[in-house]
Amino acid sequence: MARRSANFALALEATRKVATEAAGPNAAAVDRDARFPVEAIDALKRARLLSAGVPVELGGLGLSLGEQAELCCVLGQACAATAMITAMHFIQIGCIARHRGDSAWFTGYLRECVERQLLIASITSEVGVGGDARTSVAGVRVEGGAFALTKQATTISYGAHADDWFATCRRSPDAPGNDQVLVMLRRGSTTLSPTTTWNTLGMRGTCSPGFSVHATGDAAQILPDYGTVSAKTMVPYSHVLWGGTWLGIATDAVHRARAYLRGEARKAPGKAPPQGLRVSELATQLAVMRALVHDVARDVEEVYETPGADEALATIAWALRLNQLKIAASQAVFDITVKSLQTIGIMAYKQDSPASLGRHLRDALSASLMVGNDRLHATNAAFLCVFKDD
Amino acid sequence: MSSEELRGRVRQVLAEHGKLAVDAAGLGDDDDLYAAGMTSHASVGVMLALEGAFDLEFPDRLLRRSSFQSVAAIAAAITEIQGGA
User: Fold this and answer.
1) What would the pLDDT profile of A60-118 be if each residue is shown by its tens digit?
2) Element (H, E) at A168
3) H or E segment and range at residue A180
């Protein structure tokens, strides 16, 4: 990421301010009470960072995918739930920005996102599809220019706190399960009734219970061909921005291990603390993880910046690579966080010490579960039966 | 093999491995197979079965969604490989 968008430096500075002033100070309470990080998200809205990914010509900051991942990383060092919510919102904006085509409705919607700093949630999960986002049970009904959709979602992150919701569903009730579209469900013409609770080990502030969803609206709110949107934008954005979020968790864990090492070193100058080697290993693991996320982000950006090149993202080669990023980054954040905790020892194990890593560890445990790594390994195993790497 | 025979054998493979929501024999040459219910998982099975049935290997550049979008697209990909061999 050698080239920087014009707005990146200011956006990074503003995000750091949100992290230190709003996300960090409330992270423990958000985690303890499993509540939405309202202070941090409000601060992001005030700093106009929720439209970071909206193109400049529509009033947004026009940040690249890798730059958005860096913002998620900064937030993830303070509050992983805030970072994950931001990542998920950026994914929705990215899908609209890149696939709106000549839709006047979606172009107008992006302008509205800038003006009102709307927070968009995603409704891809559904009862009965076994976690496969590329299959839907519910279909959208379109009649006379209006749509109606009813969907049973197993989980909607910040569902109760979003301004709007972007839902996958079948193109019509009688279309095959994988013939999907995306529909923007607007607050005011959508009802969400919670069907389950969200009392999890980690990522508690994402507030992601299941909901029964019913919405109506204008047929112009339907974005066609989710298969293409998924391959070219939703999957690359998800895995890079999640990777950025997890990199934030791992970075802060290693920060704490390094601070501990410095403290130990000061106690006996001239004598190498026994934790030194472990911390050096941690710093190395973190460098590898960072390089992985940045490497994929840079290559995706290059594809996006080359007109017509994004067809490449619909190849098995790219699907393999993106799945590998997700698998490797989700394992790395867990490994790094556990090792940081063990390196620091009892002070990290304590819940009320400045070196505590309990929340980090519980948050990191979610990484291998959201889009299960076994599912991705199974997909990649099938791909490797035909992929030659020629 | 005539192009008609080729497309017939492609339809056979699709009937066995495509997990389509419709009868493969009734598919038009340009009908969208993904819209007909073929998942990306099933498409890998179709690729493998085609490689076996036609004794060829799809190069990575053809391992993309659009190469397996329709009977005609698959037949074109096969013809391209056979012509280049």
Assistant:
1) 999 999 999 999 999 999 999 999 999 999 999 999 999 999 999 999 999 999 999 99
2) strand A164-170
3) strand A180-186
Question: Do the Cβ atoms of A175 and B35 come closer than 8 Å?
Answer: yes
- Quote the longest CA-to-CA distance of chain A: 80
Distance, CA of A301 to CA of A314 (rounded, Å): 15
Inform me whether the C-beta atom of residue B57 falls under 8 Å from chain A C-beta atoms.
Answer: yes
A38-41 long-range CB contacts below 8 Å, 24 or more apart? A38/A161, A40/A75, A40/A78, A40/A79, A40/A82, A41/A82, A41/A85, A41/A86, A41/A119, A41/A161
pTM for this entry: 0.94
Chain B hits for A382, Cβ within 8 Å: 41, 44
Cβ–Cβ under 8 Å, residues B13 and B52: no
Three-state secondary structure call for residue A151: strand
Provide the token pair at A155.
Answer: 């989980």
Q: Mean pLDDT over all residues of chain A?
A: 96
Q: Are A247 and A83 in contact (CB under 8 A)?
A: no
ipTM of the complex: 0.80
- Give residue B14's Cα distance to chain centre: 7
Q: Are A380 and A324 in contact (CB under 8 A)?
A: yes
Which helix (H) or strand (E) covers residue A116, if one does?
helix A104-116
Contact A315 B60 (CB under 8 A): yes
Q: How high is the pLDDT of residue A1?
A: 47
Interchain CB distance below 8 Å, A176 and B63? no
pLDDT in tens, A224-242: 999 999 999 999 999 999 9
Q: Which of B27, B41, B62, B68 to mutate to test the interface with A (most CBs of A within 10 A)?
A: B41
Is residue A35 predicted with pLDDT exceeding 90? yes
